[in-house]
């Protein structure tokens, strides 16, 4: 018996064939938005996120008076696990 396990994809896989959508057909928040609308995800450091698009679908958290925007649904729970650490990385 072989024990083959695949590595779990990251919560923010950007390897979809069509860069306008994620692999499951959802809109890609990584590339949508103007320059003044863009920020980066505190969990997937350096990943650009449209503030408007993320806010429209609830991909954000408020922590100590600041709003943090996420590139995918998996980043919110990760941020919730240690918001101070992720917030500090954005400073």
UniProtKB/TrEMBL annotation:
Region annotation Disordered: where it falls in the sequence: 1-36
Question: Which positions make up the signal peptide?
Answer: none
Gene3D superfamilies, A to Z = Ribonucleotide Reductase, subunit A (1.10.620.20)
Polar residues biased stretches: 1-16
Which residue windows are transmembrane per the record? none
Gene Ontology MF, one: oxidoreductase activity
Name this polypeptide is given: YHS domain-containing protein
Which lineage ranks, top first, belong to the organism behind this chain? Bacteria, Bacillati, Actinomycetota, Actinomycetes, Micrococcales
